[in-house]
Amino acid sequence: MLPLHLQPESHIPLYVQLRDQLRALVHSGELRTGDRIPASRELAGQLGVHRTTVANAYAELESEGLIRGHVGRGTFICGAPVKQFSPPPRSNGNGGAMPWEALFADERGEEGLSRLMPDVPPGAIAFTAARPPDEFFPVEEFRRCANDVLRREGRRILQLGSTDGYEPLKRGLLELLRGEGLNVRAEQLLITDGCQQAIDLVCKAFLRPGDSVALENPAYPGAIAIFASARVRTLAVGVETDPARTGHVGLNVDALETVLLQNRVKLLFITPDFHNPTGTVLPVAERRRVLEIAAHYQVPVIEDGIYARVRLRGNALPSLKRLDNSGNVIHIDSISKIAFPGLRVGWCIGAESAIERLRLVKQSTDLHTDQLSQATMAEFIRRGYLARHIGKMKKVYRSRLEAMEEALEKHMPDSTTWTHPEGGMSLWVTLPPGFDAGELLIHARERGILFVPGRHFYSQHPQPNTLRLGFAGVDEKSIARGIETLCDLLKAELRKRQRGVRDEFHARVALI
Amino acid sequence: MLPLHLQPESHIPLYVQLRDQLRALVHSGELRTGDRIPASRELAGQLGVHRTTVANAYAELESEGLIRGHVGRGTFICGAPVKQFSPPPRSNGNGGAMPWEALFADERGEEGLSRLMPDVPPGAIAFTAARPPDEFFPVEEFRRCANDVLRREGRRILQLGSTDGYEPLKRGLLELLRGEGLNVRAEQLLITDGCQQAIDLVCKAFLRPGDSVALENPAYPGAIAIFASARVRTLAVGVETDPARTGHVGLNVDALETVLLQNRVKLLFITPDFHNPTGTVLPVAERRRVLEIAAHYQVPVIEDGIYARVRLRGNALPSLKRLDNSGNVIHIDSISKIAFPGLRVGWCIGAESAIERLRLVKQSTDLHTDQLSQATMAEFIRRGYLARHIGKMKKVYRSRLEAMEEALEKHMPDSTTWTHPEGGMSLWVTLPPGFDAGELLIHARERGILFVPGRHFYSQHPQPNTLRLGFAGVDEKSIARGIETLCDLLKAELRKRQRGVRDEFHARVALI
């Protein structure tokens, strides 16, 4: 039991009292890095307060970096200061083992992105993934391509290559893009090890520690991680999931304008198509506004197009890159959502001078992207296998999305909302205020259901009552069963909560 | 003709006068970025001074970053200040095209590592490369491996993988290392996209802008480039190529100790086996001293082992990692010199906590290394193809090294020295003082001979009279012919120079 003493009669809100007392316990050393703290419901029970009180306190401590919830494992203290490194005096013998932890360039003690990809126990239904399911991979076609390019151009593939990218792949991509209405010269295209590397290269090329980036909130955690490790400040711009609020879903462009007006922003990072995690699409009018505002403030726009080809219904919208007349947009893309995540092959497109700089940065980062995968993908595209595979997968995903929506419609309690994506691989659920998706996950995991709590996607102001449900990797039957189980848990929680509110009301009345 | 006016009677050395006047011409705008300046011999002729005078002035301006020599193309101005970015006022319309150059995070205007890998004209003899020649690649064996792993485990290869590395490759490498006397656990091994990425990850994990790294001088330019772009200070520690000076070749360990004593050094980067570019090997006693000194000052050691398996004669020495009892060494390695540079597959080995941090950094850098190449290389190693290929290539390289040494012995003028590497892919030539290898290259190129001037390998105090000759990529006959031509050019230069000294002496006498 933690030594916590809340005063219900104080004018200080209970959650603030709790937050401050927990923080003091960390600073005094009574709670230490790695200590597990009780689940919010458990602590609420011990303290006789509502669970929302505890969840709010935890959310604030988490955004301060003092605690961190791990999917399905509970919440842990993570904020101990790092030891200061000071070299020993000159005359001190051999020195012994290296104090590695004291030498790290930053103080994050986190688990990295792995928490978004937890191990899936056998038999579990995992809504965690937003990646293509491997049972549909056209392995045989791919193998034939690898075989043929190695026979035909093996020596060239295996020899040191060009930082730009493997020429046949570049040619294939330029043609693919031309077919989609985007005319790009070879000098405007750089092959990367996937989108993750493209973001890392952009970060190295354009940002210094202390610079600011405007970023959707929530956003792709891989982008948040790169900016954090480069000590770049992220300025969170809200993503609307409820069209009633701003008239559209997607990035809140008014909020963006305010951020750019009030800050010296060096880059804007945005995913207009099937934004991960919310699945929203930014309307064309808003895309034009984003470009106008970014041009006005001379802020380059990094457009993440990784999900754009996974449109499952409705009409495709022009990318920012297509709408961009001034060369202000760097568009990043990859094969990992439309084909094979295990090959690290992506690309970026932009103004020639920007791409040339990214090429130089890539050169000193890893010389060039692996050529075996580049050559094989070039062949895979050339033979039309990629187009055919995308067509096949869209049918699979559409059916799975519909199954998920049907199940949600049928079983979700009224007070819960979710997005209705026209593509991508996941949708976004908002539970009633005060609910904690991390807590829900603990129970769901016991029933063999996994998902990713929404808070992992926020760079600021995490909303504990949100969660991401990936539909692409789960078959229709499992979706129906998994969503029903999840909704049952949620409804049970809702009932308990209603009882709890009554109890708390009674408790408060008794205090008067 | 440049407006230069040297005063031979001044007490200020001629080269200092020349340096300062050239610098002033850049600052006044009379010389601008991209302008080509005369070759040192040409300018020396115009000014009536010795070529060494011009070469010395150029060397200093180059180390200031104001001029840069490009292999075979001449010397150019590269020091114009970058425009300052200032956002436009609020009410200013669309903004127009992005001023990309003003947005780059650093101000280097260089060509990157490409200058070390110039295009080779048809028929030319290129001593530029220090990489395996592709005509010996066992493409057919490799193709069969790719084929079989895709048949056997295609879905797993093409699906998103683990940041650690593909498990069968990790297993194969651990076994390989065990066979070499190094017992390492899986947690101490991280797969990377080659050595270049390993250095980049180390840099991100352990260094902040302004930190200092001790680095061999000369050194691998890829390492210099990474540290420069991370705004890390490199402290140059000399590499001895003449055993008469310090009793051994390789890193000057006394100089290292002085650097560590006088500076707060965060990392030591060292290539003890077949150091690139000099080809030197650090003796065991000096390896032990390096470890002792590094442990004493608690400075982690990054050991680049990329050439170590390419030992062509003499006995193998234990790596720093094998001698390391305290876990202070991170050993980086790759398949690019022993097998295929076009596949970006390497690894690093170190203390568990250091590797765990590098894994986190890699995760946000590119998620994981391409799995097709990892899986194929695992199979290539498992079947014994790698060991067989290394054995075959060592014979090829040994014969080429001997051919080069024979030709040098036969044709080089007495005043020139070169290293006698026991392995690796290149040797290091020191021309008589005052000679400029960049100038020699201009003439050599006209005769169809290419090499890399030594100054590209220096982070500080470039020695213009050095050059690297790669022997691995050129057959014996071409080596004999190329070296003879190069020596002829050099001898012709020497004769001219002797005449020049007489002329200058006469000129100076005439002034008195």
Describe it.
The structure is a homodimer of 512-residue chains. The first copy, chain A, has 512 residues and is α/β, with parallel strands linked by helices. Chain A folds into 3 domains: 81 residues, Arc Repressor Mutant, subunit A, CATH 1.10.10.10; 146 residues, Aspartate Aminotransferase, domain 1, CATH 3.90.1150; 247 residues, Type I PLP-dependent aspartate aminotransferase-like (Major domain) (Aspartate Aminotransferase, domain 2, 3-Layer(aba) Sandwich), CATH 3.40.640. In chain A, 44% of the residues lie in helices and 13% in strands. Chain A has an 8-stranded mixed beta sheet with strand order 5-12-11-10-9-6-7-8, sandwiched between helices. In chain A, helix 2 crosses helix 3, helix 5 packs across helix 14 and helix 7 crosses helix 13. The longest helix of chain A is centred in the last third of the chain and has 36 residues. The first copy, chain A, is globular, with a radius of gyration of 25 Å. About 3% of the residues of chain A have low confidence.
